[in-house]
Design a protein that fits this description.
Chain lengths: 332, 294
């Protein structure tokens, strides 16, 4: 009897989570649509129109070719038709072709995305491995030297530009000490160790801001939780301080960390664009910048769209994690 | 409590909270350090020609890539220009882009957010879906995307950063208005017959201003970081005008020979951003003393 009731409760929880998931997914649909529309409209920002800009680069082009290019961009048709076509293409993974190389943008993005994902994931790993322990230390030793050092780290971490940090790291570790390899990319399939060695500095550069943000939120949420009655109870019943922190306080203190990771993941993902450029990593961000230098508009559009959609997906995952961690969210 | 003290307390109710706020701010160590850092940067940028006799743009190949010396405290760049001079002049662009873009984002986003939170309904729903789309892009990526199509240059950078920060600022303004829309003093103002506009401007906004000021100050720090990143990528104010990001990019090109050209501008960015971050946090603490120290 009791068993059956527990099962029913569990089932209710699952259904609630299911409907929560459905609701979040439904909310993401208009956002994705808006993102595709915004990226489609970007090309309208080009002063004059795209074709005059492109033709401006190459003087020896015939008026006939100009008209041909206009048709290629679909500029001779009404805007809604153009958008419908673009949306249809995106839905099928067709993001147009590079104006320079003629290669399909979608395929190129698929080839480069793993590099960006690896960089972002390692950056996140760095941020968690630094931010959580330093934040806990600062909270436990509140008002002492370790706390002040951690606070200093947070303020500098939130203020230092990641691309400058990257250059400092290269100057120090690669050029001065020579302990880490200079900028280059090795595919993990070729040589996993070499790949990881080459990823250390980029991951540090890209994860530093997030590490500072996580340190700050872990410190403040742990401080808040440490005043709660259940922590006092745990201490009163004679548990070791380490166990109180780890098993009682941390569990609840970690929920805001998920929020901060979600909020700051955009900074991390945006940071990869610049860091890839500095370390010559062939990711999506570098692809976008190559496109910018060559005024290869379909390439820029495709790369921006890919990163933005990845960000939408990450936010969705964060929301779902949040629903798992904090049941109250599901009933909002 | 006798009637005398009650009377004296009600006769001057307005200046007290504000002076207490100023007092808290002046005593806050973060506000002091941040304020000094910002004053140094602003003075350096404003008085650049008086601090340094060098020209920030004219090239002097004989002096190129020098280390620090008495004549050039931060060394020289690949064209022989004094790095300190260029850092000071670059501060003008950074501060101007930061101030103008955040000001524009505050004016547009703050107004839209406040109005949409105040009236609610379909207007609010539309505005917030629009903000959702802008917020679906990582900030720097949206700025890069806008500038890739608009083209670089000072005003386009201001515009791009302003567009990016409009959405978050509108959210903050909206949340601030929503949180006090149903306070008793707002209802009281309505009961005595105040019109919507008056209620919003005279009764709600003065009480919703704290989170907006805090967010604006912290966005200033982010805008200066964004400007630096954009000009590092060559999408910002175009050379020969000195910008910090572009100076770091030039320094990176010669970093196998000398570290100096990249060091000066990077320190300038860090100091400026640190100043605004410290000040923003301090203002938040001053407005909300209970949360301070956490």
């Amino acid at each position: 009897m009791l068993h059956g009731r527990q099962n029913a409760l569990k089932l209710a929880g699952v259904t609630f989570l299911g409907s929560y998931l459905t609701r979040r997914l439904a909310l993401a649909v208009p956002t994705v649509f808006g993102v595709v529309l915004a990226v489609f409209l970007l090309i309208r920002l080009v002063p004059g129109d795209v074709v005059t800009q492109l033709v401006g680069l190459e003087a020896t082009i015939s008026p006939k070719r100009v008209d041909e290019l206009r048709r290629l961009f679909g500029l001779d048709r009404p805007l809604p038709v153009q958008f419908a076509e673009y949306l249809g293409g995106v839905a099928q993974g067709d993001l147009g072709k590079s104006l320079r190389t003629g290669l399909p943008v979608g395929r190129e993005l698929l080839r480069r995305f793993p590099v960006t994902i690896e960089l972002a994931a390692l950056g996140l790993l760095v941020a968690l491995c630094v931010g959580v322990p330093v934040g806990v230390l600062a909270a436990v030793r509140r008002g002492r030297a370790a706390d002040y050092l951690a606070t200093g780290f947070v303020m500098v971490g939130l203020s230092i530009p990641s691309f400058w940090l990257a250059i400092l790291l290269i100057l120090f570790f690669a050029l001065r000490l020579g302990v880490l390899p200079p900028t280059a990319y090795i595919a993990p399939r070729e040589n996993l160790i070499g790949n990881l060695l080459h990823m250390i500095l980029p991951a540090l550069s890209v994860g530093f801001v997030l590490a500072a943000a996580i340190t700050r939120i872990v410190r403040s949420s742990l401080l808040e939780v440490l005043n709660r009655h259940y922590v006092r109870t745990a201490r009163a019943k004679g548990l070791a301080e380490g166990r109180v922190i780890l098993h009682h306080a941390m569990r609840n203190a970690l929920i805001p960390v998920v929020t901060v990771v979600g909020l700051q993941f955009g900074t991390l993902l945006g940071g990869t664009v610049i860091i890839e450029q500095i370390f010559s990593l062939p990711g999506v961000g570098r692809y976008a910048l190559e496109g910018i230098n060559l005024r290869d508009y379909p390439v820029i559009q495709g790369a921006v769209l890919a990163i933005a959609l990845a960000f939408v997906l990450v936010n969705l995952i964060v929301d779902v994690c949040y629903g798992f961690l904090d049941p109250r969210i599901r009933y909002e | 409590m006798d009637s005398l003290t009650l009377e004296s307390a009600t006769s001057r109710p307005i200046p007290r909270p504000r002076s207490r706020l100023r007092h808290r701010l002046l005593r806050h160590p973060g506000a002091r350090i941040g304020g000094v850092l910002i004053m140094i940067v602003v003075a350096g940028a404003a008085l650049a020609p008086w601090f340094s006799a060098y020209d920030p743009i004219a090239i002097a190949p004989v002096d190129r890539l020098q280390g620090p010396s008495r004549a050039h405290p931060l060394g020289t760049d690949i064209y022989g220009r004094d790095t300190l001079t260029r850092v000071l002049h670059g501060g003008r662009i950074s501060l101007a882009v930061g101030g103008l873009s955040v000001g524009l984002a505050l004016a547009v986003g703050g107004t839209v957010g406040a109005v949409s939170g105040f009236f609610g309904g379909w207007l609010d729903a539309v505005v917030m879906r629009f903000a959702d789309v802008l917020l679906a892009f990582p900030a720097i990526l949206l700025a890069i995307g806008l500038l890739a199509f608009l083209g670089g240059g000072f005003w386009n950078v201001v515009l791009a950063i302003a567009i990016v920060y409009t959405a978050p600022l509108s959210r903050v303004a909206r949340a601030a208005v929503l949180s006090i829309r149903h306070e008793e003093y707002v209802d009281a103002a309505r009961v005595i017959g105040a019109a919507d506009g008056r209620v919003l401007v005279r009764h709600i906004l003065p009480n919703a201003v704290a989170p907006i000021i805090v967010e604006g100050t912290l966005r200033l720090a982010l805008a200066i970081l964004a400007e630096a990143a954009l000009s590092f990528l060559g999408l910002g104010t175009q050379p020969p005008a000195p910008t910090w990001g572009q100076m770091i990019a030039e320094g990176r090109a010669v970093m196998t020979f000398t570290a100096w050209p990249a060091l000066g501008p990077g320190m300038a960015i860090t100091i400026t951003v640190l100043g605004f971050n410290l000040l923003g946090d301090a203002i938040r603490d001053a407005f909300d003393p209970h949360a301070a120290g956490r």
